[in-house]
Design a protein that fits this description.
By secondary structure, the chain is mostly helical. The protein has 14 helices and no strands. The model has no long low-confidence stretch (mean pLDDT 80).
């Protein structure tokens, strides 16, 4: 009962934060006349449908990656369950924690040994960070920096630029740490786990912890012997997931702001999602809506239209996972 209440409270917190920011933005930007002027046409509804299709592509990429990393031991149904649990956990925790860090728990519930599940989790985190590391120079080669960070110089643009490069430096360092941990220092991680479980309250699980550590060591050795094709498949699934996530906004701009340059819209999504990796609020609630409307404001002359796109973007990429989680929460708690 306490677990259920805690999860429900965590679910409502990001909703409350996001709703408060949206109401504030509405009061600042919207009038009744502007709301009535929103063009609800076949094109705009088609854009929303296209955005939903991009979300499906994102989830399929994550499922494909889990299936690849588990050597096809997981069925598509199991990978879907793991992916939805990761997304829901990300939605109710600060982005710095995220759902991916708990994927080892969800994987072990689907029959993957905990040691191997831990290695898979490290690889998942490493691939996500590696995508950001590799994509950054490509994007900045294709598009000018002043267009990516904002055409109008000012304090906001300067702040976004500075914050982005600080976060990007941290991502590069984290990628290196995850790479070393997954490939070369499994023994150190295993010894740390074993020492933790010597503590009296955890001693009853010490033998299982040692077994988990040994599994991690063997799984790490196995990773170093994997063929290039295996890694290419995992990287391809990661790229599909992230690119599909970015394209959601491109789809919405195609329907609601046709004059905006699609290349710049895509490039700015890279900056937005990189900055959201350090959001202190659950699922980036509040910060996401404010950052989006401020960051994309110079691409659309009508400020109210930016808010409409921001709300639709959050509905597709965030609130849908909260809704799925709330519906599935009773079943997950029964199997906890």
């Amino acid at each position: 009962m306490n677990s259920s209440r805690g999860l429900i409270l965590k679910t409502m917190l990001p909703v409350a934060i996001g709703a408060a920011v949206v109401i504030w933005l509405f009061c600042r930007e919207f009038t009744v006349e502007q709301w009535l002027a929103i063009p609800w046409t076949v094109r705009t509804f088609g854009a929303i449908a296209l955005g939903a299709l991009c979300i499906i592509g994102r989830e399929w990429g994550m499922m494909w990656r889990f299936r690849t990393l588990s050597d096809r031991r997981l069925t598509w149904r199991q990978t879907l369950k793991i992916t939805m649990q990761c997304e829901f956990t990300s939605a109710i925790t600060p982005t710095t924690a995220g759902g991916s860090t708990l994927s080892m728990v969800f994987l072990s519930r689907q029959g993957i040994p905990l040691g191997r599940a831990t290695i898979i989790t490290l690889i998942v985190l490493m691939l996500d960070e590696l995508f950001i590391v590799v994509a950054c120079p490509i994007i900045f080669l294709l598009f000018p920096g002043h267009a990516i960070f904002g055409f109008d110089p000012g304090a906001f643009t300067t702040g976004v630029r500075l914050a982005f490069w600080i976060v990007y430096g941290g991502v590069c360092a984290l990628t290196l740490v995850l790479f070393l941990g997954a490939f070369f220092f499994q023994g150190g991680i295993a010894r740390t786990i074993s020492r933790i479980f010597v503590w009296r309250p955890l001693r009853r699980w010490h033998s299982r912890a040692v077994e988990t550590g040994q599994t991690m060591i063997s799984a790490g050795r196995d990773l170093r012997s994997r063929p290039l094709s295996w890694w290419a498949e995992a990287l391809g699934a990661t790229a599909l997931s992230w690119i599909s996530r970015y394209l959601v906004v491109n789809a919405l701009f195609w329907g609601f702001a046709t004059a905006a340059p699609q290349g710049i819209v895509f490039a700015r999504q890279f900056v937005v999602w990189t900055l959201l990796t350090i959001s202190p609020t659950p699922g980036g609630s509040g910060l996401s809506e404010w950052l989006f409307t401020s960051y994309y404001g110079d691409l659309i002359t009508d400020a109210s239209m930016v808010l409409v796109i921001a709300i639709l973007w959050r509905l597709l990429t965030y609130y849908v996972y909260l809704a799925i989680g709330v519906i599935r929460l009773p079943a997950w708690l029964r199997k906890r």
